[in-house]
């Protein structure tokens, strides 16, 4: 299924009048505060978030998986699904591939489909946390950190292969999420595991093309439950610093222990110019991969507040943005539309924070006003602004409603069948 301009216009039509009323009212209030609404709209339009190739099918838990039907069974179909999202909200113009879940077969056909639906290729992700069908050695006890040099070599080679695949598609970054760790005290030596990981990453780093980045992701636990080799931002930062200027830390919002101050981590990494990428999701307990903004929207806003301030005040290069959420209840496309809206909303809220006023009250230790400034921005309903930015880019005023009214899922089920399955989690 392809979403056309006519589709968008027909579903926007009945919403235009009330949207215009809401937007004009908001725009007037923002202008009164001295904000440049046109500039805000430009920034919101420019902000694009990559979609992971593994989030287009229903996610499972270790207890089961309930498919909603019409899942994309091939990489081309996955790219077409992202094309549907992008046509609706004009906010996700790239895909992030997970290898080997999505090894491209026919590169020309893939690139052609991607171009047709205006989708590019973001960071490529390696996977050494699962054994593949024809794999000679097992990752059961780790990959890049494994005691066995041959297993490390296999994992290193896989990462190099992922870079080669990404090069053919126009990707500019490799994301390494390393599951390696231990489930029981004494299982392995922390120091040896870290050293092996560093040496393995060095081998991969040597293979990076000059205009590429390596994004090193961290996670405190899971799939191992006692220790993870790259457990926190500090370990990732340490490795990125040792590896060199093309290596950066990647922050996945779900990869922190409860109540961690993620916004502070973001600020620290940006100060050091080492924030390379972001995986958005939300969580209540662990790596829950829930819809962005569904549990802790205020935290998301505070994170964006640091990002926006960091863009202005540090020389940290623009990070790679990606959604990394996948669960088993909602239609995955609706879930992604909601996530993207939540991200743009938090970004918009951060953009209207009066940073100068904030600096002034910080200097005079006016704690009360500091809170007022942040919460005033957070409590402003900026949905009409985000919708207007999307509408002006040719997207839907309400992506979710257009999606339902255009019967996208029903059409995909008709086209692909009830039982088609997406590769991934
Ligand atoms: C991990 C991590 C990675 C993602 C996999 C599927 O927890 O978030 O980024 O590639 O899950
Ligand atoms: Mn992630
Ligand atoms: Mn994760």
What would you say this structure looks like, in words?
- The protein is α/β, with parallel strands linked by helices.
- It has helices at residues 5-12, 16-32, 37-46, 75-89, 107-116, 149-169, 190-206, 233-243, 262-271, 297-313, 332-351, 355-363, 367-378, 383-392, 399-405, 408-416, and strands spanning 51-52, 94-96, 120-121, 124-125, 173-177, 181-182, 213-217, 227-228, 247-252, 275-280, 320-323.
- Strands 4-5-7-9-10-11 form a six-stranded parallel sheet. It has a three-stranded parallel sheet with strand order 1-2-3, covered by helices on one side.
- Helix 2 packs across helix 14 (383-392), helix 4 packs parallel to helix 5 (107-116) and helix 4 (75-89) crosses helix 11.
- The protein is globular.
Brief sketch in words of this structure:
Helix content is 48%, strand content 9%. It has helices at 5-12, 16-32, 37-46, 75-89, 107-116, 149-169, 190-206, 233-243, 262-271, 297-313, 332-351, 355-363, 367-378, 383-392, 399-405, 408-416; strands spanning 51-52, 94-96, 120-121, 124-125, 173-177, 181-182, 213-217, 227-228, 247-252, 275-280, 320-323.
List descriptors:
about 425 residues, alpha/beta, 6-stranded parallel beta sheet, 16 helices, about 50% helix, globular, binds beta-L-rhamnopyranose, binds manganese (II) ion
């Amino acid at each position: 299924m392809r979403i056309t301009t006519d589709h968008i216009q027909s579903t926007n039509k009945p919403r235009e009048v009330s949207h215009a009323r809401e937007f004009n009212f908001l725009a007037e209030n923002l202008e009164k505060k001295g904000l440049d609404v046109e500039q805000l709209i430009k920034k919101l339009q420019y902000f694009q978030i990559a979609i992971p190739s593994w989030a287009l099918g229903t996610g499972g838990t270790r207890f089961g998986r309930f498919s909603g039907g019409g899942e994309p069974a091939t990489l081309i179909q996955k790219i077409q699904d992202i094309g549907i999202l992008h046509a609706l909200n004009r906010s996700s113009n790239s895909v992030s591939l997970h290898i080997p879940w999505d090894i491209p077969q026919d590169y020309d056909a893939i690139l052609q489909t991607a171009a047709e639906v205006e989708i590019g290729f973001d960071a490529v992700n390696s996977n050494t946390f699962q054994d593949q069908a024809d794999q000679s050695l097992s990752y059961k006890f780790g990959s890049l950190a494994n005691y066995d040099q041959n297993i490390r070599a296999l994992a290193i080679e896989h990462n190099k292969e992922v870079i080669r695949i990404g090069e053919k598609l126009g990707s500019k970054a490799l994301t390494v999420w390393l599951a390696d760790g231990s489930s029981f005290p004494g299982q392995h030596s922390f120091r040896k595991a870290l050293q092996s990981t560093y040496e393995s990453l060095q081998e991969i780093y040597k293979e990076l093309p000059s205009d590429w980045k390596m994004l090193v992701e961290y996670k405190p636990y899971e799939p191992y439950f006692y220790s993870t080799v790259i457990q926190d931002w500090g370990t990732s930062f340490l490795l990125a610093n040792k590896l060199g200027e093309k290596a950066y830390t990647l922050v996945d919002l779900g990869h922190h222990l409860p109540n961690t101050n993620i916004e502070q981590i973001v600020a620290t990494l940006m100060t050091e110019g080492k924030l390379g990428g972001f995986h958005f999701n939300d969580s209540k307990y662990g790596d829950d991969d829930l819809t962005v903004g569904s549990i802790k929207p205020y935290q998301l806003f505070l994170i964006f507040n640091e990002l926006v301030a960091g863009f202005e005040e540090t020389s940290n290069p623009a990070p790679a943005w990606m959604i990394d959420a996948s669960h088993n209840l909602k239609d995955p496309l609706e879930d992604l539309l909601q996530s993207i809206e939540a991200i743009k909303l938090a970004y918009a809220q951060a953009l209207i924070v009066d940073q100068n006023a904030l600096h002034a009250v910080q200097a005079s230790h006016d704690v009360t006003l500091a809170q007022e400034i942040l919460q005033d921005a957070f409590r402003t309903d900026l949905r009409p602004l985000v919708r207007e930015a999307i509408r002006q880019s040719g997207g839907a005023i309400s992506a979710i409603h257009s999606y339902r009214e255009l019967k996208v899922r029903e059409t995909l089920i008709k086209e692909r069948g009830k039982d088609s399955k997406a590769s991934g989690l």
